[in-house]
Amino acid sequence: MNDSVPGYAGKMAFVDLSSAKITYERVPKNIVEKVVGGKGLGAWLLYRLLPPHVDALSPNNVFIVATGPAQGIMPIAGRYTIVAKSPHTGLYLDSHAGGYVGPELKMAGLDALIVKGRSESTVWLQVEDGTVQIKPATSLWGKSTEETETELRKRHDSRARVMSIGPAGERLVPISLVVSDGHRTASRGGLGALWGSKGLKAISIVGDREVSVADSSAVEELVQELRNRARANRKKGHLLYRHGTSWLVNLASELDQLPVTNFQAATSEEAEKLSGYSIHDGFGKRIRPKPCFRCSIACSFIIDGGFSWANGAVQQPEYESLALLGSNLGIYDIEALLRFNHMCNVFGLDTISTGNTIGWFMESVERGVVPVQFSREFVRFGDVDGALELIRKIALREGVGALLSGGVRRASKAIGKGSEQWAVHVKGLELPAWDPRGRLGLGLSYAVTPVGGSHLRGWPTTSDIPDRSAKGVIPGLVEQQDLKILKDSLIMCHFTHSISPALNVADTARIFSAITGIQIDERGARERADLIWKLTRMFNEREFAPKPPRERDVLPPRLMKEPLPSGRAKGRTAFISQNDFEESLTELYRHRGLTDDGKVPDEVKNKIKTELSL
Does position 2 have pLDDT exceeding 60, yes or no? Predict the structure, then answer.
């Protein structure tokens, strides 16, 4: 790519921590034309740079922090993505976070930062004015993410945007994460462990550059349009604008999708205690918004100090954290949830995987299958103090925490005794807080997602219960998968589904065309999304060949075999039968142009490789 292509900084930095060598490349124009940026750019780089079968915690693994053309330009576009081979699952991974890092990296002169190798001593990376420097960080090792961010703003710049790992990542905990802007997290898949394996504590970024656009009038029109569409839903009283994602607790319970006591149920009479209404009633004026860069929705909130267990303001937990650390553990004490969430942030743990794994452990204790050697550490549903101690032990890999730190697949395999039957994960990634037994076809999204169990890869466009075949929802599901890919590649926030009207595929084509000058229509946008979807599956195919992908595109036994005990979806499993699941899976494969065993056909692979110079 040359400097004339708008919407991009025009530069990628490659950092080899083993040799302390830093090089720079430009992104070829033909590549960004095909993969857009963000997730697409990261997937292309990962496939290109990483040979098959690399140990995810070896120096040879790479991670890519990527931006998209919408960064620093559009509203509701304050996210960034990290792409890597996951230390947790061994699969392709893209994990995303909001805040300011994405726009800051773009304005610091980089479209992507690619890191490989392993430093002999602890380091952090300083990014500014299109360059990267490797700095010593021995004194930062052992510090929380909160302490690390504070320190690096002193060392680098008070304006710096900081990404860091906590003690969990330092100890290579497979469910650890990367934290930025205090409480924004690239949570899924063990990125904290990947950074820890490289001796990388943090990245600090300062950006001052303007980002050019191809058609400034069209871009300004789109900016104003998106702001107006957000304003329209705010005026309608959409609860995301008032309470953030915490409002979803009540909705999920009503829809029979709220995980309760390790997914044994999906609705709770106590759900209201965890809802946005209860949080805002309880903390009132102590709550204030903390939006992402140029966001017109402002769905994130923090709660000002006054907690004995925190140094200052704490994050209002997102829905996923409230559900999986709350109802999933049989805990409905909102201050306990604030503390659980805060502890996960400062230690650097994924709240989804942590809550899911602790729920599995609590059920295993109650079923009497946990080895007696852990008898002094048994914790049961509803035990606040016990859950708090488990979070600490997981982060530090102490006692039973060493077992649980690997997530539910590893832990259930280690103790056996049938505990795999209530280990709720897909491809090793713990399931998010949306039970597919309450929504027709949602299980298909979980099953085929390359990263494993994720709630951000496209949902069926229905809230119906699974009382009939899922085959009818497949076209809408594929459309939503494509839309999510395009958002993650531009990069735009997923909560643009909550503007009025909601962002759609045609909108993404308009945004890409106006910013870059590369003219595409809705069909062209879909073609790019499909290419990226296939490229991520190709990565996994290459890792696990000759085993067919269909062997991995499965749901956990609890969701397929155990009907919900109550609620509107009482008696339902994720699919009406195993046969319907298999037929629906085949139908989705055919809709995507895959073989019946889930492979990307050889002729399609070769075409993609040619187009992307792989």
Answer: no
